[in-house]
């Protein structure tokens, strides 16, 4: 029998693995459906799953700033990030969008410093620069060719913009949750609102409703349920697992996500992409090592 600490930590690792696979699986599903419909179906199953596992929280007891402010940030992030993946025009763009999204670990550290939640040392600046440099290599291996960069961004400006805005919103959510949540957890409600919002966008935009095949229904149900389980497990892991080890593991998500995308989508990133991906993780690690919580 596993020691409770080890079991909780392993559950946290499984959540990280699910999130790292999410980008590729969402792309796989939305290739057969209209973009918003695909993610609306996935998150409908996620909302149901997390409600079954956690129940409906007592909203009246929660601080209004957390419930409305952090709730809005959570919902907007999920919609923008998932939509950016769904709106990608090919599987190569999915990899770029994922890397833009994975700027959130170093950005969370920077925002936490600005919010006065972390002590820091000067190498944190170096770490952030390395992460940005890595992202630039992923987007445009010819770093100093600005014209080529503009051409790449113009291929799908909406998807790239959604991914970047999402990468800014999640650190804001993390920082404000730490400040205002007071130990409460409204994530099940946030998931329900996210799913409903996606359905509203689907119908308002007059997007075509495509009935999934039986096999696709199975994949949607499994994916949505796993996402719900991942969020549910993560809270338990943070309370009872090795939090330092789990946070460290999140900084390797760019590499893991790229590997999972390569396996699931059959993509073959070039050497510059892998170097850039590793640099994003290294930059995040330097930021992490250069900070400590304030007493």
Automatic annotation (TrEMBL):
<feature type="transmembrane region" description="Helical">
    <location>
        <begin position="9"/>
        <end position="30"/>
    </location>
</feature>
<keyword id="KW-0812">Transmembrane</keyword>
<feature type="domain" description="EamA">
    <location>
        <begin position="159"/>
        <end position="286"/>
    </location>
</feature>
<feature type="transmembrane region" description="Helical">
    <location>
        <begin position="243"/>
        <end position="265"/>
    </location>
</feature>
<keyword id="KW-1133">Transmembrane helix</keyword>
<feature type="transmembrane region" description="Helical">
    <location>
        <begin position="36"/>
        <end position="54"/>
    </location>
</feature>
<dbReference type="InterPro" id="IPR000620">
    <property type="entry name" value="EamA_dom"/>
</dbReference>
<keyword id="KW-0472">Membrane</keyword>
<feature type="transmembrane region" description="Helical">
    <location>
        <begin position="210"/>
        <end position="231"/>
    </location>
</feature>
<protein>
    <recommendedName>
        <fullName>EamA domain-containing protein</fullName>
    </recommendedName>
</protein>
<feature type="transmembrane region" description="Helical">
    <location>
        <begin position="66"/>
        <end position="88"/>
    </location>
</feature>
<feature type="transmembrane region" description="Helical">
    <location>
        <begin position="185"/>
        <end position="204"/>
    </location>
</feature>
<feature type="transmembrane region" description="Helical">
    <location>
        <begin position="159"/>
        <end position="176"/>
    </location>
</feature>
<dbReference type="InterPro" id="IPR037185">
    <property type="entry name" value="EmrE-like"/>
</dbReference>
<dbReference type="Pfam" id="PF00892">
    <property type="entry name" value="EamA"/>
</dbReference>
<dbReference type="GO" id="GO:0016020">
    <property type="term" value="C:membrane"/>
</dbReference>
<feature type="transmembrane region" description="Helical">
    <location>
        <begin position="271"/>
        <end position="288"/>
    </location>
</feature>
<feature type="transmembrane region" description="Helical">
    <location>
        <begin position="94"/>
        <end position="115"/>
    </location>
</feature>
<feature type="transmembrane region" description="Helical">
    <location>
        <begin position="122"/>
        <end position="139"/>
    </location>
</feature>
């Amino acid at each position: 029998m596993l020691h409770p600490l080890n079991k909780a930590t392993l559950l946290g690792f499984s959540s990280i693995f699910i999130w790292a696979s999410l980008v590729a699986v969402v792309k796989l599903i939305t290739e057969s459906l209209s973009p918003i419909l695909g993610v609306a179906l996935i998150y409908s199953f996620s909302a149901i799953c997390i409600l079954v596992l956690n129940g409906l929280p007592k909203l009246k007891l929660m601080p209004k700033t957390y419930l409305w402010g952090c709730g809005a940030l959570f919902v907007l992030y999920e919609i923008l990030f998932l939509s950016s993946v769904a709106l990608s025009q090919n599987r190569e763009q999915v990899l770029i969008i994922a890397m833009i999204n994975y700027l959130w670990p170093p950005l969370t550290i920077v925002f936490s410093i600005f919010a006065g939640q972390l002590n820091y040392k000067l190498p944190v600046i170096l770490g952030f620069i390395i992460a940005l440099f890595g992202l630039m290599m992923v987007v445009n291996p010819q770093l100093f060719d600005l014209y080529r960069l503009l051409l790449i961004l113009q291929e799908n400006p909406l998807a790239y913009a959604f991914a970047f805005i999402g990468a800014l919103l999640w650190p804001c959510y993390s920082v404000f949750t730490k400040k205002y949540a007071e130990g409460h957890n409204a994530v099940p409600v946030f998931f329900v609102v996210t799913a409903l919002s996606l359905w509203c966008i689907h119908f308002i935009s007059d997007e075509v409703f495509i009935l999934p095949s039986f096999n696709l229904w199975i994949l949607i149900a499994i994916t949505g349920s796993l996402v719900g389980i991942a969020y549910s497990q993560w809270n338990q892991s943070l309370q009872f697992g090795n939090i330092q080890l789990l946070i460290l593991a999140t900084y390797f998500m760019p590499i893991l996500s790229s590997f999972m995308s390569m396996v699931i989508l059959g993509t073959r990133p070039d050497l510059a992409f892998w170097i850039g991906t590793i640099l994003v993780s290294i930059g995040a690690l330097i930021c992490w090592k250069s900070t400590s919580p304030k007493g």
